[in-house]
Amino acid sequence: MKYVLVTGGVVSGLGKGVTASSIGVLLKACGLRVTSIKIDPYLNTDAGTMSPFEHGEVFVLDDGGEVDLDLGNYERFLDIKLTRDNNITTGKIYQHVIAKERKGDYLGKTVQVVPHVTDAIQDWIERVAVIPVDGEEGPADVCVIELGGTIGDIESAPFIEALGQFSYRVGPGNFCLVHVSLVPVLNVVGEQKTKPTQHSVKGLRGLGLTPDILACRSTKPLEDNVKEKLAQFCHVPLQYIFTLYDVPNIWHIPLLLKDQKAHLAISKVLNLASILNEPSLGEWTSRAELCDNLHVPVRIAVVGKYTGLSDAYLSVLKALLHASVACRKKLVVDWVPACDLEKETEKENPDAYKAAWKLLKGVDGVLVPGGFGDRGVEGKILAAKYARENKIPFLGICLGMQIAVIEFARSVLSLHDANSTEFTPETKHPCIIFMPEGSRTHMGGTMRLGSRKSFFNVKDSKSAKLYGNKSFVDERHRHRYEVNPDMVERLEKAGLSFAAKDETGKRMEIIELPNHPFFIGAQFHPEFKSRPGKASPLFLGLIAASCGELDTVLNPASAHQHLISNGPKNVYVNGTPKKSPNSLADVRYNNGYCNGLYTR
Ligand code: GLN
């Protein structure tokens, strides 16, 4: 196993996660199998309890792990499925060490940060690095480890010490340290300044880690003399210094690294020269370029609670982007604060109320994402009502599906006080209720988390078609509340279709309104499994419906007809023209997978 450690210096928010994922993409494109580990030096055992306001979304894995959003980046970029143990936190490590101490495993020794905590970190890395994450058997070739935070943070000290020791444990030729740093430009003189990078490299060395490669964030490519200065002062060879300058979209980052031959530098440090092929990034290149050249907009309202911080809905945003690219449309997201749609706001802040409704009324499609707590719920219900009544394409995710059911019960069944017991425990018409898989009396550990199967049971439903008419799908969950099984029959009779349920038939997984152009809700979170080039089917449906092309996705036959009348286009696979027609139908045929096909 070879290890690439990615650290960050100077400031946080440099895009260390994207850089680490991009290094993974580059190595994968050279034919290597890649896995990854994210280290978060905070004390929380996992991200499950952290507010999206503060920390961005909580990403959910197949095994139910609630982890840092960077793991989402790894999964999307590398098309892998990670485990909860791929996210190491200080909380997890200390919990592990303290549990061992209580068991008496340290045989009377004084338990200390060095060596006990540092050993636990190293053992954890070695254990997790060999878990296969790409569907193949046996361990990957390379493990990319990203150390969260910035060099010099107090809380990351035990990890730095452990990683310093680890570089000796695995030996030379097996460990490559990439330090991501910032080269700012001072406006007055317009000069690229190297001092912050010099300082952070000095800090790194002082802590016992030696950088092999520098990846410098800057607005423009580094000037030659700036690189020379960095090489001289940081003791890193010139050909091992790369610039990650600003690019129009993050899919360009692996290409930037490739163009600067970062793969050759990494392969030299890791003694990989013999197995390294020229990276094949044809599909990435096409997609990055395609994304830059999309002009026809598709406008989607995201009606949520955390609209001030787009990271709070990162995977939703990425899934919308994947679907828009598949439909060759430029994604425009209008963030609508759910509270602002409510009557209360009309009184208290009429301008915000007007602005929110104006935004909502100007979009092609509406998405209500997941959420917890009652703030903004009434606004979300109003958004679902607006989409249902005006035949605007609608996708509700988790809470977004629950509020759509509440809205339907209120408006169509005239159950005006219908609600979720999460918000009104004493409601007379509880259409959403607490349905834990385990204990009904204890909240802790009662969330339904991770991958669960949903079985399609309505023939010809849009969702089943979008998922390629499979009998079931495996999507990720994170919720406690669900549609009340006792109300299903009434809702069904009034026209709400439950297109998919769990294996017991008691948990409603997908709702649809058959007489609406596109109105779908899912109890699961399809966004977590969306990938560039493999858009999530429900997102693809929303975007296609929003640009009036749903038929093309749902009925491949008519799509081919459409193509014949418009003439076939040239399709490129990794840069080579292919004869087969390229259409949205192909996207669905491949279950949302574009196979790198893009019309030029
Ligand atoms: N709060 C709701 C529940 O617990 C929805 C959760 C979500 O949207 N992730 O069921």
From TrEMBL:
<protein>
    <recommendedName>
        <fullName>CTP synthase</fullName>
        <ecNumber>6.3.4.2</ecNumber>
    </recommendedName>
</protein>
<feature type="domain" description="CTP synthase N-terminal">
    <location>
        <begin position="2"/>
        <end position="272"/>
    </location>
</feature>
<dbReference type="InterPro" id="IPR004468">
    <property type="entry name" value="CTP_synthase"/>
</dbReference>
<dbReference type="InterPro" id="IPR017926">
    <property type="entry name" value="GATASE"/>
</dbReference>
<dbReference type="InterPro" id="IPR033828">
    <property type="entry name" value="GATase1_CTP_Synthase"/>
</dbReference>
<feature type="domain" description="Glutamine amidotransferase">
    <location>
        <begin position="310"/>
        <end position="543"/>
    </location>
</feature>
<keyword id="KW-0436">Ligase</keyword>
<dbReference type="Pfam" id="PF06418">
    <property type="entry name" value="CTP_synth_N"/>
</dbReference>
<comment type="similarity">
    <text>Belongs to the CTP synthase family.</text>
</comment>
<keyword id="KW-0067">ATP-binding</keyword>
<dbReference type="GO" id="GO:0003883">
    <property type="term" value="F:CTP synthase activity"/>
</dbReference>
<comment type="pathway">
    <text>Pyrimidine metabolism; CTP biosynthesis via de novo pathway; CTP from UDP: step 2/2.</text>
</comment>
<dbReference type="GO" id="GO:0005524">
    <property type="term" value="F:ATP binding"/>
</dbReference>
<dbReference type="Pfam" id="PF00117">
    <property type="entry name" value="GATase"/>
</dbReference>
<keyword id="KW-0315">Glutamine amidotransferase</keyword>
<keyword id="KW-0547">Nucleotide-binding</keyword>
<comment type="function">
    <text>Catalyzes the ATP-dependent amination of UTP to CTP with either L-glutamine or ammonia as the source of nitrogen.</text>
</comment>
<dbReference type="InterPro" id="IPR017456">
    <property type="entry name" value="CTP_synthase_N"/>
</dbReference>
<keyword id="KW-0665">Pyrimidine biosynthesis</keyword>
<dbReference type="GO" id="GO:0044210">
    <property type="term" value="P:'de novo' CTP biosynthetic process"/>
</dbReference>
<dbReference type="GO" id="GO:0019856">
    <property type="term" value="P:pyrimidine nucleobase biosynthetic process"/>
</dbReference>
<dbReference type="GO" id="GO:0042802">
    <property type="term" value="F:identical protein binding"/>
</dbReference>
